[in-house]
Amino acid sequence: MLLILLSSIFIIPVLIGWGKIMENVSGILFQGISGKILSGILGISLIWTFISFFIPLNIYAETVSILLGLFFFFRYQLYEEFYQFSKKDFILFSATTLVIMLAGSYYPYILDHFGYYIPTLQWLAEYGLAKGISNVDLTLGQMSVWHIFQAGFSNFSDPFLRINTVLLIIYTIYIIERKNWIHLCFLPVLLLFSQSPSPDLPVIIFSLIILNELIAGNKNTTLLFAFSVFVFSIKPTMIWLPILVFLHSVFIFKNNFKSLFLGILILFLFFIKNIWTFGFPVFPVAIGDLGVSWKPNPEVLKISSQFAIMKTYDMQYTYEEIQKFSTADYIKNWLFLEGIKSKINILFVLSLAVFSVFAWIKKRKLITLICISLLIKSILVLTFSAQYRFFIDVFFVVFFVLFYEYFNQKKSIIVFSVLSLFFVSMLSFPALIQKYIPSFRVGSFMTGFEKKQLYKPSAYEYRQFNTFKIGNFKFNVSHNYPYSFDTPVPAVTPFYIFDDVKAGIFPQLSDKNDLKKGFIWKKMTPEEKKEAQKVINNIKNTDK
After folding, report:
1. Which residues in 403-416 are b (16+ Cβ under 10 Å) and which e?
2. What is the mean pLDDT of residues 448-462?
3. Among 76, 182, 191, 544, which has the minimal tally of Cβ within 10 Å of its Cβ?
4. Residue 212 vs residue 340, higher pLDDT
5. Distance (Å, whole) CA 6 – CA 456
């Protein structure tokens, strides 16, 4: 907890300084400390995304960025803006921050932390955006902008990778500044995302902030749309947000398309980043083929697509069984899966139905536009892969709009207190959730409270791996573990080795003398197939 506090005290002024830089360039997103911080996050994320095409986000990039941010923070005496907090505000902020830091100090338990987040950060910090990285590990082709943001602070400012915990503290500043207390009700639930650099947390927080600004009458369409596109670039399932801001700009403010220019530039950068790492404009959809030489093998994409369909049904049906479903079966089997995910899916459908009726009754333009945007997003998600993690943000939005005028400060603090106690207890005593909700699988990876958390956040170390070489590609594979969360790069996840060998291909260096020039896939020669089989046998024997 102490080290998280120090990281926050260090990082937040840097972001405020960068926010001042952004305000000088593009204008004010909204007034206050939190407005500067969000502008700073946007600015530094975009700059790091651009430079990561050319250099790694190592200690040198971090040092220069931090010094520049701190220079503007002290040059313009931005610390004085904290004096606006009253004594009551400061007490509430301190208490909330204490809860956030406690929750953020637990061991990571989200599986993507080990199989996706950490490997992505390692690549970004050591090599930057690697061209064709999806040929090494398809998941890494995402290279979320949020992970670029985290990687930039991962060298010494936030070595424990708790940028999400810092973001929750920033969210608290926004809540207190804007005096919109319903946001406090969301904080306890969001504590579950504070241990890992999960992109789910920032997109939920940023979408709620943008919604709040729209409802409050913020007319800075240029920056609101730019920020909504930024949220989309973090996680494309948030497509409803830029759609909403666009519709709001056209039908309510009657703005012209000039206000969309900055957002379109960010969208263009997002497409270029994805083409560079994945080969197509939007991960993981293989649409918009530009014929680049480093795009993934079609067979690997096919396997990934089939896996996504099976994940829609919580792996309770084979791909062949799903293909035989009638339209009624698709719906019925998704709604009535075994375990907690069935309840989530049903609640999702009911939430959309209730919100649609609410929008029809209210007949307010903004609420109608929110409903239309959510329905468009929901149709797209249900079409591609209806996993609950892709529509979890809908619950927050629906609750926010329905109860926006109901929760005052007193009610919100009560809800925050009760739910915080519940969720922190769940993190501290995971045996309870493992016993009573066994179908909530991530609960089985929670480990409970340890005293050392009071000083530093808990983090796993494994560092056991084997090294192999197939063709011109020398790589590391985690020893007797399915993920590569702290295996030195270049590392390949065993799962993808099996897929590649099944497809008869394997990743190779574009330039055998320079890993930085990226990766392509090639069909294996008979000799390389023998080497690949030895690698697979080694992995299987180790697993035994």
Report:
1. eeeebebeebbebb
2. 87
3. 544
4. 212
5. 10
Tokens of residue 263, six digits: 């957002």
- CA distances for 533 relative to 30, 507, 508, 540, angstroms: 58, 15, 17, 10
Instruction: Give 119's contacts (C-beta < 8 A, 6+ positions apart).
Output: 137, 139, 140, 483, 484, 485, 487, 489, 491, 493
- What is the rounded distance in angstroms from the CA atom of residue 86 to the CA atom of residue 82? 9
The predicted pLDDT at position 440 comes to: 62
Strands (E), 122-280: none
State the Cα–Cα distance between residues 420 and 458, nearest whole angstrom. Answer: 20
Q: How many Cβ atoms from other residues are within 10 Å of residue 306's Cβ?
A: 15
**What does pTM read for this prediction?**
0.94
**Residue 231 identity (one-letter amino acid):** V
CB atoms closer than 10 angstroms to residue 237: 22
33, 97, 173, 246 from 91: Cα distances, Å: 17, 10, 12, 39
By three-state DSSP, how is residue 362 classified?
Answer: helix
* pLDDT score of 444 more than 60: yes
Max distance between CA atoms of the chain, in angstroms, equals 73
Rounded CA separation 512/432 (Å): 52
Averaged pLDDT for residues 61-80: 95
